[in-house]
Write a structure and sequence with these properties.
Blueprint (H helix, E strand, L loop, with lengths): L1 H13 L3 H8 L18 H10 L3 H17 L3 H15 L2 H13 L3 H17 L3 H18 L2 H11 L24 H11 L4 H8 L3 H15 L4 H11 L5
Length: 245
C-alpha cells in the first residue's frame, strides 16, 4: 500500500489539494499498512513537513513519535537519522536537521539528505540567518537537480523565495518541465524499466539505488507526463518505442 499511496500523495500535492494528500499520508502511521515497517522511516519526514505546513502539529507529533519508535525498535542508521530529522522539524531545530543531513550523507542517501537540508534552509531563513540559509539552499538545489527531483526542486524554491533566496542567474537546466523531453536520463531509464514490468524494489536493485529514490523518480515521471499509473507509463513508453526495439 505504501508504494500505491506515495505517487498519489505527490499528485494531490502538485494539484494543490494538500488536505487530500495529508489524509493519504496519515495512513503511513498505521503499521498494518507497512508489513514489517521496513521503509516507513523514509516517508515520515514528508508527513511531518506537510502536517506542519497545514498547522496540524498533533499529526506532526504523531509522525515524530512513530519515527522515534521505529528507531528504538531497530536502531539502524536510516531510522536513527530519520528520527533525528523528524524531531528537529517539529522543534524547528536547524542544527539538528543539519546533523541528520550529515548522517544521510555518511551513509549515501542523497534524497533523504536533501530533505533534511531543505528543512534546515527554511528554518535558517525564518530565523534570519540568510547567509547560511542561502548556502544550504544551494546544496539542496544541486542534489535535487542531480536526482531529477523536479517537484522537490520547485517546492524548495517556492519555500525560500519569500526570504529573498532564489537561484542565481545561471539556470541549472533548460530542460522542459512537462512531457517526455522533461524527463532526466535517470527518469527515462526508470520509465523503460517500469514499461518492462519491473517493480520499484526490482528497479532499485537494477540501478543500485534506494527504493525511496525510485519512488521519487516514478512520482516525477507521473507528474511530468500527466499520467496516473504505471500502466499508463508503460503504454506511453510503448507508443514511443519502435516495435522490436
Amino acid at each position: 500500500p505504501r508504494s500505491t499511496l506515495f505517487p498519489y500523495t505527490t499528485l494531490f500535492r502538485s494539484a494543490g489539494d494538500t488536505g487530500r494528500a495529508l489524509e493519504l499520508m496519515a495512513h503511513w502511521l498505521d503499521p498494518a499498512l507497512i508489513r514489517g515497517q521496513e521503509t516507513r522511516h523514509e516517508l515520515l519526514p514528508q508527513l511531518v513537513r506537510v502536517a506542519l505546513d497545514t498547522g496540524d502539529r498533533d499529526l506532526a507529533a504523531a509522525a515524530v513519535t512513530a519515527a522515534e519508535a521505529d528507531a528504538a525498535s531497530d536502531p539502524q542508521p536510516g531510522r536513527l537519522a530519520t528520527a533525528r530529522c523528524c524531531r528537529a522539524q517539529l522543534d524547528d531545530d536547524a542544527a539538528g536537521l543539519l546533523a541528520a543531513a550529515g548522517s544521510y550523507l555518511e551513509h549515501g542517501w542523497p534524497l533523504e539528505r536533501a530533505t533534511a537540508l531543505e528543512e534546515a534552509a527554511v528554518r535558517l531563513a525564518a530565523g534570519g540567518d540568510l547567509t547560511e540559509a542561502r548556502a544550504v539552499f544551494n546544496d539542496v538545489i544541486k542534489v535535487y537537480f542531480g536526482l531529477g527531483a523536479s517537484w522537490d526542486l520547485r517546492r524548495t524554491e517556492a519555500r525560500l523565495r519569500p526570504h529573498g533566496i532564489r537561484r542565481g542567474p545561471r539556470a541549472l537546466s533548460r530542460r522542459p518541465v512537462t512531457g517526455w523531453e522533461a524527463l532526466t536520463p535517470s527518469e527515462t531509464r526508470i520509465a523503460e524499466l517500469v514499461a518492462r514490468g519491473l517493480s520499484n524494489p526490482d528497479i532499485a536493485a537494477e540501478l543500485y539505488v534506494s527504493r525511496r529514490t525510485v519512488q521519487t523518480h516514478v512520482s516525477n515521471i507521473l507528474i511530468k507526463l500527466d499520467l496516473r499509473s504505471r500502466v499508463e507509463v508503460a503504454r506511453e513508453y510503448a507508443s514511443r518505442t519502435p516495435s522490436g526495439s
